[in-house]
Amino acid sequence: MQTLSRSLADMTLQERTNMADVVVEALEAFAEEAENGGDERFARDSKAIACTIRGCGNDLSKCELETAELLLEFGIQFMYAYTCREQEFGSEGSAAAQH
Predict the structure, then answer these.
(1) Cβ pair 69, 8 in contact under 8 A
(2) Domain ranges of the chain
């Protein structure tokens, strides 16, 4: 996994909170999209990651920053993998339609 350009320890409390909020909201949006697309497993996993990040976000002031950073990176990578998978399935579907 690539590291974040700035670690959470280098951010202010407000920046950390904003980062966590953005990732959680994105995970929830991906979960909704997955549910609408019939992918219940991804939707469930995405919601679980979002809830875990939200639970960790209660104390981003000082402790467990390394854990929070790993969770944020995991959430971002999880969404990226879903996007890549959707693109892969989309291109396979269009290739199959051409034959």
Answers:
(1) yes
(2) 12-98
Q: How far is CA 24 from the centre of its chain?
A: 7
Which helix (DSSP H) or strand (DSSP E) does residue 67 occupy?
A: helix 65-98
Are 23 and 53 contacting, i.e. CB atoms less than 8 angstroms apart?
Answer: yes
What digits encode the pLDDT tens for the residues 7-59? 888 888 899 889 999 999 999 999 999 999 999 999 999 999 999 998 876 67
Is pTM beyond 0.90? Reply is: no
Residue 5 burial by Cβ neighbours in a 10 Å radius (0-12, 13-18, 19+): exposed
Q: Is the Cβ–Cβ distance between 8 and 61 less than 8 Å?
A: no
